[in-house]
Amino acid sequence: MAIASLLTVLLPPGFIMRYIGSSGPLAYITAVLVGVPLYVCEGEEIPLTLSLMKLGLGPGPAFAFLLGSVGTCIPTMVMSQKLIGRRGLLIYATWWLAFALVSGIVFGLVSGRI
User: Fold this and answer.
1) Residue 26: what are its φ and ψ, rounded to 5°?
2) Res 63: pLDDT
3) CA 22, CA 58: separation in Å to the nearest integer?
4) CA distances from 21 to 15, 42, 54, 94 (A)
5) Which residues contact 75 (CB under 8 A, 6 or more apart)?
6) Is the model's pTM score more than 0.90?
7) Burial (0-12, 13-18, 19+ Cβ within 10 Å), 16
Protein backbone atom coordinates (compact mmCIF):
# COMPACT_ATOMS: atom_id res chain seq x y z
CA MET A 1 0.00 0.00 0.00
CA ALA A 2 2.89 2.34 0.81
CA ILE A 3 4.45 1.77 -2.62
CA ALA A 4 1.15 2.55 -4.36
CA SER A 5 0.75 5.74 -2.33
CA LEU A 6 4.31 6.83 -2.98
CA LEU A 7 3.99 6.19 -6.70
CA THR A 8 0.83 8.25 -6.92
CA VAL A 9 2.15 11.13 -4.82
CA LEU A 10 5.77 11.36 -5.95
CA LEU A 11 5.52 10.69 -9.67
CA PRO A 12 3.82 13.25 -11.90
CA PRO A 13 0.69 12.26 -13.85
CA GLY A 14 1.62 10.87 -17.24
CA PHE A 15 5.07 9.78 -16.04
CA ILE A 16 4.71 6.31 -17.52
CA MET A 17 3.37 7.60 -20.83
CA ARG A 18 6.36 9.90 -21.16
CA TYR A 19 9.03 7.30 -20.46
CA ILE A 20 7.71 3.88 -21.49
CA GLY A 21 4.39 4.53 -23.21
CA SER A 22 0.86 3.53 -22.36
CA SER A 23 0.45 0.34 -24.39
CA GLY A 24 3.45 -0.15 -26.65
CA PRO A 25 5.82 -3.10 -26.64
CA LEU A 26 8.10 -1.39 -24.12
CA ALA A 27 5.16 -0.95 -21.71
CA TYR A 28 4.33 -4.67 -21.82
CA ILE A 29 7.91 -5.82 -21.40
CA THR A 30 8.63 -3.35 -18.61
CA ALA A 31 5.41 -4.25 -16.76
CA VAL A 32 6.24 -7.95 -16.80
CA LEU A 33 9.92 -7.50 -15.92
CA VAL A 34 9.03 -5.26 -12.99
CA GLY A 35 6.09 -7.37 -11.84
CA VAL A 36 7.68 -10.81 -11.75
CA PRO A 37 10.48 -10.12 -9.25
CA LEU A 38 8.34 -7.65 -7.26
CA TYR A 39 5.73 -10.18 -6.06
CA VAL A 40 2.93 -8.66 -4.09
CA CYS A 41 0.32 -10.61 -2.19
CA GLU A 42 -2.73 -10.28 0.03
CA GLY A 43 -4.50 -7.88 -2.32
CA GLU A 44 -1.69 -5.33 -2.54
CA GLU A 45 -1.40 -5.84 -6.29
CA ILE A 46 -4.74 -4.10 -6.92
CA PRO A 47 -3.88 -0.64 -5.48
CA LEU A 48 -0.39 -0.87 -6.97
CA THR A 49 -1.77 -1.65 -10.42
CA LEU A 50 -4.37 1.14 -10.07
CA SER A 51 -1.59 3.58 -9.19
CA LEU A 52 0.34 2.55 -12.29
CA MET A 53 -2.76 3.04 -14.42
CA LYS A 54 -3.30 6.51 -12.94
CA LEU A 55 0.27 7.30 -13.97
CA GLY A 56 -0.58 6.34 -17.56
CA LEU A 57 -0.10 2.58 -17.89
CA GLY A 58 -2.64 1.06 -20.27
CA PRO A 59 -4.97 -1.80 -19.33
CA GLY A 60 -3.02 -4.48 -21.24
CA PRO A 61 0.36 -3.77 -19.63
CA ALA A 62 -1.39 -3.29 -16.28
CA PHE A 63 -2.88 -6.78 -16.59
CA ALA A 64 0.55 -8.17 -17.53
CA PHE A 65 2.00 -6.48 -14.44
CA LEU A 66 -0.82 -7.85 -12.30
CA LEU A 67 -0.24 -11.42 -13.46
CA GLY A 68 3.52 -11.09 -13.26
CA SER A 69 3.45 -9.64 -9.78
CA VAL A 70 1.41 -12.50 -8.32
CA GLY A 71 3.17 -15.27 -10.21
CA THR A 72 6.50 -15.56 -8.53
CA CYS A 73 9.22 -13.72 -6.70
CA ILE A 74 12.97 -13.87 -6.23
CA PRO A 75 12.83 -15.72 -2.86
CA THR A 76 10.48 -18.30 -4.39
CA MET A 77 12.82 -18.75 -7.33
CA VAL A 78 15.81 -19.24 -5.04
CA MET A 79 13.95 -21.88 -3.04
CA SER A 80 12.51 -23.51 -6.15
CA GLN A 81 15.96 -23.92 -7.64
CA LYS A 82 16.83 -26.23 -4.76
CA LEU A 83 13.70 -28.31 -5.38
CA ILE A 84 13.45 -28.44 -9.17
CA GLY A 85 16.99 -27.52 -10.21
CA ARG A 86 18.31 -24.69 -12.33
CA ARG A 87 16.84 -26.02 -15.58
CA GLY A 88 13.37 -26.46 -14.04
CA LEU A 89 13.53 -22.98 -12.58
CA LEU A 90 14.54 -21.49 -15.93
CA ILE A 91 11.63 -23.24 -17.63
CA TYR A 92 9.18 -22.07 -14.94
CA ALA A 93 10.38 -18.45 -14.93
CA THR A 94 10.38 -18.27 -18.73
CA TRP A 95 6.90 -19.77 -18.89
CA TRP A 96 5.58 -17.32 -16.30
CA LEU A 97 7.11 -14.30 -18.08
CA ALA A 98 5.62 -15.47 -21.38
CA PHE A 99 2.24 -16.22 -19.80
CA ALA A 100 1.99 -12.77 -18.20
CA LEU A 101 3.14 -11.04 -21.39
CA VAL A 102 0.78 -12.91 -23.73
CA SER A 103 -2.14 -12.55 -21.33
CA GLY A 104 -1.53 -8.80 -21.12
CA ILE A 105 -1.43 -8.50 -24.90
CA VAL A 106 -4.67 -10.51 -25.27
CA PHE A 107 -6.32 -8.35 -22.62
CA GLY A 108 -5.11 -5.24 -24.42
CA LEU A 109 -6.60 -6.53 -27.68
CA VAL A 110 -9.92 -7.41 -26.04
CA SER A 111 -10.10 -4.02 -24.32
CA GLY A 112 -9.24 -2.30 -27.60
CA ARG A 113 -6.25 -0.43 -26.15
CA ILE A 114 -3.21 -2.24 -27.52
Assistant:
1) -65, -35
2) 92
3) 5
4) 9, 28, 13, 24
5) 39
6) no
7) buried
Q: At 114, is the pLDDT very low, low, confident or very high (cuts 50, 70, 90)?
A: low
What pLDDT score was predicted for residue 1?
Answer: 66
Plot region of 39 (φ>0 → left; ψ -120 to 50 → alpha; else → beta)? left
Instruction: Tell me what the mean pLDDT of segment 45-60 comes to.
Output: 85
Which pLDDT does position 42 carry in this prediction? 65
Residue 13 phi, psi dihedral angles, 5° rounding: -55, 140
Rounded-to-10 torsion of CA 16, 21, 26, 29: 50
Q: pLDDT value at position 47?
A: 83
Question: Are the C-beta atoms of residues 61 and 31 closer than 8 Å to each other?
Answer: yes
Q: Which of 43, 46, 42, 57 is nearest to 11 (CA)?
A: 57
Are residues 37 and 81 in contact, defined by beta-carbon separation less than 8 angstroms? no
